[in-house]
Design a protein that fits this description.
mainly alpha, two-stranded antiparallel sheet, about 220 residues, 10 helices
């Protein structure tokens, strides 16, 4: 069983997410159109194209360098709040990759916790505000639990991704408190948040890449 993620697996994770973003562009736009400007998918697609090119054309000395480059590519190409939020995600996650070519479960948990904190500091959002925080927060909570820490890398990431997907689905019952959706009040209820959807995709891609590496 693989107990760590190699730098190649991190690359696979990023490439898988980019492919899924491109495939889901229309769906993400439709979700966003219900409470926002309808551009979440299109904005993320621009970042996916840039990250794909980055991964194809550059070599990286360690995971920190790799994820920092991804963060900057996203910030420079993704419009709206998504660029800053996802850029912060990868920038904060990169800290645990300094001088490392592998990440274990403890490192991933620390990095994802830092990413969540960075997103919350930047956007001022909390669980229940109907944002991508509603996907990543339950995922980090699961990863930090003692029972998950003892489950092994792949099983832990599966539990985290499942928690993120449940958090995504729970946003349908929420009233938006952040962004354009907040102006709709109760009319924002009944719609799954686009940002929570893309974050759940990112975490499921992480699990799928780790699982593939063990097969």
């Amino acid at each position: 069983m693989t107990l760590v993620l190699s730098q190649d697996v991190v690359t696979t994770w990023l490439e898988r997410f980019c492919a899924d973003v491109v495939a889901a562009e229309s769906h993400l736009n439709q979700l966003d159109a219900a409470v926002g400007d309808g551009e979440h998918g299109s904005n993320l697609r621009q970042g996916a194209v840039a990250v794909r090119a980055l991964l194809r054309d550059r070599k990286f000395g360690d995971i920190q360098e790799q994820l920092m480059a991804v963060a900057m590519a996203i910030v420079n190409t993704v419009g709206g709040a998504s660029g800053a939020l996802y850029g912060t995600f990868f920038l904060r996650l990169s800290d645990v990759g300094a001088g490392r070519n592998t990440l274990d479960l403890a490192g991933l948990t620390e990095g994802l916790g830092s990413a969540l904190a960075g997103i919350r500091e930047l956007g001022g959002s909390a669980p229940g505000d109907k944002t991508l925080v509603d996907a990543i927060h339950p995922a980090v909570t699961v990863l930090e639990s003692p029972s998950t820490r003892s489950a092994g890398l792949v099983a832990a990431l599966d539990r985290a991704a499942t928690a993120a997907e449940q958090g995504r689905d729970a946003t349908a019952a929420m009233v938006a408190r952040m962004g354009r959706g907040s102006y709709l009040g109760d009319r924002s209820r009944g719609h799954i948040d686009a940002g929570a959807t893309s974050m759940a995709m990112l975490l499921r891609c992480l699990h799928a890449s780790a699982e593939e590496a063990t097969s």
